[in-house]
C-alpha cells in the first residue's frame, strides 16, 4: 500500500487524495458538532472523554446524562470496546465452525462482518456510538430459508462465547435478552407474528367473547 502511494507521488495527480483529505478536514471544522444527547449545537468547551474519544455537549446537564448512560450501560459493564471486540472475534470463529449455519457466510466479507457486528452489538448494548448500518430486517431479508433454528444456533454461540470470556451469568442473560429482541426482524417475521402482538390479539378476542 505504502509502495503504491510512493510510486504515485511522482505524478501530479497525487494531489487529488491529499486535497480531498484537506477538504474533508475543513468541512469537519466548519460543521458545528451536534450534542449526542439533545442534538442541539455542542459547546466545544463542554466535553468529556470516553474510550479515548472526546465528546462535546450542549450543556453540563447533557454531559452528566451521557456519563450516567455510559456507566449504566451493559456495554460498559461488559468491559467496553475491547470486550465487545474480543467477544465478536471469538463468536465468528464458532459460527464459521458450525455446519448448521456457516453456509450463510460463504460469500460474505468476514472482515467487514466482524466490524459491522462490533458496531451493532456496541450500539445495542448502550455503547457511545449510534448504529448507522442496515436495520436487521433489511440486513437479513435476502438470506434463503433463514429460520428459528439458525437464529438459535447463532444465539447459542454468542452465549457460549460470553461464558468462555467469563462474563457473569446475570449479565449474559441481559445480553441475550437484548439480542433476542431483534429475532423477529432477523427472521423477517410479520409484525403480527410477534408473540406480543399475538397476546394482544388473543386478549381482544377474549374481551369480545366476554362482552357477548
Ligand atoms: C442474533 C442476532 C443477529 C444479529 C444481531 C445480527 C447482526 C448482523 C449485522 C449487524 C449485520 C450487518 C448489517 C449491515 O451490513 O449493515 C448482519 C449481516 C448478516 N447476518 Fe446477521 N445477525 C443476527 C443473526 C443472524 C443469523 C441467525 C444469521 C444466519 C445464520 C445471520 C447471517 C448474516 C449474514 C450472512 C449477513 C451478511 C449479509 C450480507 O452482507 O449480505 N445473522 N447481521
List the helices and strands and how they pair.
Elements: H1 2-8, H2 15-30, E1 43-50, E2 53-57, H3 60-72, H4 74-78, H5 80-96, H6 110-124, H7 136-140, H8 148-164, H9 169-180, H10 183-186, H11 195-211
Antiparallel strand pairs: 1-2
Describe this structure in words.
The protein is mainly alpha-helical and about 210 residues long. It folds into 2 domains: about 20-70, no CATH class; about 80-185, Orthogonal Bundle (Globin-like). It is built from 11 helices and 2 strands, in the order H-H-E-E-H-H-H-H-H-H-H-H-H. It has helices at about 1-10, 15-30, 60-70, 75-80, 80-95, 110-125, 135-140, 150-165, 170-180, 185, 195-210, and strands at about 45-50, 55. It has a two-stranded antiparallel sheet. Helix 5 (about 80-95) crosses helix 6, helix 5 (about 80-95) packs across helix 8 and helix 8 (about 150-165) runs antiparallel to helix 9. The longest helix is centred in the middle third of the chain and has 17 residues, at about 80-95. The radius of gyration is 23 Å and the shape is globular. It starts with a helix and ends with a helix. About 10% of the residues are buried. Mean pLDDT is about 85; it is low at about 1-20 and about 25-30. Bound molecules: protoporphyrin IX containing FE (HEM). Protoporphyrin IX containing FE (HEM) binds next to helix 6, helix 7 and helix 8. Protoporphyrin IX containing FE binds next to helix 6, helix 7 and helix 8.
What's the short story on this structure?
The chain is mainly alpha-helical and 212 residues long.
- Content of β-strand: 5-15%
Taking the alpha carbons of the first and last residues, their distance comes to 76 Å
The CATH homologous superfamily name of the largest domain equals Globins
The small molecules bound here are: protoporphyrin IX containing FE
| Stretches with pLDDT under 50, minimum 5 residues | 1-21, 24-28
The radius of gyration is 23 Å
**Helical content, roughly?**
55-70%
Helices and strands, in order, run as: HHEEHHHHHHHHH
Largest sheet: 2 strands, antiparallel
Number of strands: 2
Shape: globular
CATH class of the largest domain: Mainly Alpha
* Alpha plus pi helix count: 11
Structural class: mainly alpha
Average pLDDT reading:
84
Going across the biggest sheet, name each strand in turn: 1-2
